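Work Package 3 (structural annotation) set out to generate three-dimensional models for the target panel prioritized at the project kickoff. During this period the team completed the workflow that converts sequence records into discrete structure tokens, so that structures can be stored uniformly alongside our sequence database. As a representative example, we reproduce one entry of 224 residues exactly as it appears in the project archive.
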Amino acid sequence: MILSNILYRTFFIKAMQYGSAFTVDVDGEEYIVTARHLLDLSQKQIQLQLFHSEQWHTLNATVIGHGRGEIDISVLKVSQRLSHEDMTINLTIAEMCLGQDIYFLGFPYKMWSNVGSLLGGMPCAFAKKGTVSAFQLNDPQILHIDAFNNEGFSGGPLFFCPHGQLDKVHVVGVVSKFKIEQETVIDENGDKTNMSVPYNTGFMVAYGTKYILSIIESYRQLPK
């Protein structure tokens, strides 16, 4: 089950690459979260395009900060509010259990669903479900999900509803990529060649939303 709280906060975006993004509220301020690899990291001011009413709209966005090292998370801010603040979500890994069901949203291969006025002109994201296979509490906080991630889900939210609390959304991570391995190419005789091809192992990789909060906190401490 996908609550409107997170569905209305998930956007189809275009920057350096196509992908997904979602909004969060921290102390009454709204921020846009996406995957770092979708952006031009050399720019502090970027033109971010959001798909709405079946066309692209350009917004001037300020880069609040990027995750360090392998942390594939970026936080942006625009001058206008994109989501209603009453649609609350929680940025926490609390109550997540190994082996539980978990969900993620995004726009694979530039696809979306047109649901008319139900989302006020927003494209409806694709939803996928996986299993929490492994996660780390220490840095880097990586989550491995048993689910087939596809191109376009990058930057989307990874979330669940705590047991018995179907009115709440816990966003635990930001979708980054899928685990790739190389498979040797076999020739017509069944013998191995020197060539290989990458394949999707079926493990999706995400990074913990605690980094969203740390990026915002670091930005707030900068002299204005």
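The CA atoms of residues 6 and 153 lie 15 Å apart.
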